[in-house]
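The passage that follows is intended for readers who have already worked through the single-chain material. We present the inputs for a multi-component assembly, then the predicted structure in tokenized form, and finally a short commentary. You are encouraged to pause after the input and sketch how you expect the pieces to fit together before reading on.
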Amino acid sequence: MKFLQTGLVLLTSTLFASGCGSSGRTKPYAMDGIRADGGAEVAKYGEGAGDALGTTSPSRGTSPAGPLAKRVIYFVYDSSEVQPEYLPVINSHANYLASNKGKTVVLQGHADERGSPEYNIALGEQRSQSVAKLMKLQGVGDNQIQMVSFGEEKAAVFGHGENAWQQNRRVEITYSER
Amino acid sequence: MIRNSLAALSCLWIIVFSIPSHAELTVDVTLGVENSIPIAIVPFGGPQGGSDENLASIIAADLARSGRFKVLPESQMLERPSTPEQVQFTTWKTLGQDNLGIGRVRQTGTDRYEAQFELFDAVRGTQLANSSLPYTTAESRKTAHRIADIIYKQLTGEDGAFASRIAYVTVSPGSGLNDRRYTLQVADADGFNPQAIVNSPEPIMSPAWSPDGKKIAYVSFENKRPAIFIQTLSSREREKVSELPGINGAPAWSPDGTQLALTLSKDGNPEIYVMDLTHRSLRRVTDHFAIDTEPAWSRDGKQLVFTSDRGGKPQLYSVASTGGQPQRITFEGDYNARGAFSPDGKSLAMVHGNGGDYRIAVLDMASKQLRVLTPGSLDESPSFAPNGSMILYASQNGERAGLSTLSSNGKVREGLRIKAGEAGEAREPAWSP
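Having made your guess, compare it with the prediction:
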């Protein structure tokens, strides 16, 4: 049953080949013709990103899609607590990983630019850990999850002010083959 | 309101933000620099040794930035003596100049110059100091900084820091978010003569000078994960000293240079460790489920100040460098992080967040008085000059991050001229010993 559900979600996301943020708060932000939605960046730094989900570049397309197509979890200021609205996204990835033990993810933690850079590295790591903890509760193996924090060093969106900051406080989920 | 009055002032006026024990912010803006030493530095005569700027203006800018001097603008000078015989002390006394610096440069060979300089007490009409410095074109700015150091020492009794260096990271955005370049740079203390030390498409963070000024420890993500490197500046040889699972960050040299404090999360969450640099052995200093990071050594090496959110929000704590029970040391504001000791160990600079603004504040370790010294909203990474007279920090000017200096008495702030490329940013400064 679980497998069927996952398959369905996978199929959906393949059909729509969607971008990673599509609901109001997580809307991708266009700047100088470059979509700065984090997805493009993940594709560059992750290995084989997109392959696991059968999608092409996650930064293309604007159609809404299932929770597996969303790969960015956003946080409130100075907090590593996962907001309830992101639980379905994390659960979908967790279910997929739990039934595909050969797949692994990198959870890339980020913070907004405010405050001290090294403190923000620690904050980014705690955000990754919050997501990892929830995934492990769903049966994802320790060896399927890697974490790295970039703190405030890799903003998804340039600029100062809450609009940019809320898009930079995030964990990006990147798939890779084991 | 504050912003407007600041904008109306030219760059060298006194700006003191002080927060006494109560939380209300008081802003004192005073015109003129009280207790500062009046001095005139006359443009040097001669060819200036290939420098496109007169040595005197480099010297004058150094002295003004320190907050200890009131420098006479060149436009107000009635005479321009460059030799002792040309000096008429009454002219300078009339202008209210207690001190007068003059000099001249002569060419002594191919790309060989010599700067001759004299410092006078214009009130008494006596010579206080003189020196003769040979140099090449490449050393012309350095020569001016050395003369500024001589003047500073003569008139304040303390060592100058104008001939020291600064390290910082520039970030060039390239063609967009996926094309950033991170470069660790070392430049003169006034931001000139930058030299790239490391260049990477992945972040570089937290440069820290060894106490002898010969090496820099830093964090590099070049392997897509953080590692701490120690690089020797003269040879450019470098060594990876830590690449454990999780965070490898916030390197800080012990005062004797034999140990490196750092942040590691190999055991699950960020903790402070001390690495013996000879044997590479690790000693764990903190043990708490909250964030512990950004260690800073006390002058005697016995204490480490660090940032922790164990009380709910980031505050500074102090712990014995051998481990023990940490004591909280900051209580004002809802965010205090990244402590940096002054060279005499009596003050601690930090990032102080209150009501959504992040500013540089200094805590007097004896009186526990906290003074907020900058008016910005996104100020971070404070670092003291080797003589303690100034603090270098990163701030946001408009859309771009840049570096600024601040006199430790809070009197003078100045943005440094950092050439970071067209749209580049300069961040995470560290002042050399």
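Commentary: Helices of chain A lie at 2-16, 39-45, 87-98, 117-137, 162-168. Chain A has one domain: 2-177. How closely did your sketch match?
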